[in-house]
Amino acid sequence: MDIDVRGPRFGATVTTVVLAVVLITGSAWLLAWQTLAFALGAAGGVGRSPYGWLFRKVVRPRLGPPTEFESPEPPRFAQAVGLVFAGVGLVGFGLGPTWLGLAATAAALAAAFLNAAFGYCLGCELYLLVRRVTVRTE
Q: What is the pLDDT of residues 57-74, one digit of tens each?
């Protein structure tokens, strides 16, 4: 079942804010929260993430009906990519070196910002590239 494209974009907007605050404050706890949000989105799809729940319960009822839909697999893959970067960021902030935490968090922030501001999902594009490379042509 396809999903409303506004949901992942809303999640990317919240993620952008969270990761920007992480970079400003250096808060490993806040990055741990974002890592959990990525993990839930990767495991159950973007609708199962905290931001997906917030969109579904609070934001979407205030919007008109969706006019554009997308397959749930690319955003779910993007959540898994975000999970990897957030996990590396946690390692950097927790065990060092700090620059690793900053770099991984900044990379995740850049990807989230592209989706939030321009609707361009890097993780989704990576998903499509991986599918093209791995699917056998017969």
A: 999 999 999 999 999 999
Handedness of CA 30, 21, 61, 68 (dihedral sign): negative
Task: Report how far residue 18's alpha carbon sits from residue 121's, in angstroms, rounded to the nearest whole number.
Answer: 17
Q: Which of 123, 105, 117, 119 is nearest to 19 (CA)?
A: 105
43 to 37, 72, 73, 105, 135: CA distances (angstroms): 10, 12, 11, 21, 23
| 39-56 residue pLDDT tens | 999 999 999 999 999 999
DSSP-derived 3-state class of residue 119:
coil
pLDDT at 1: 87
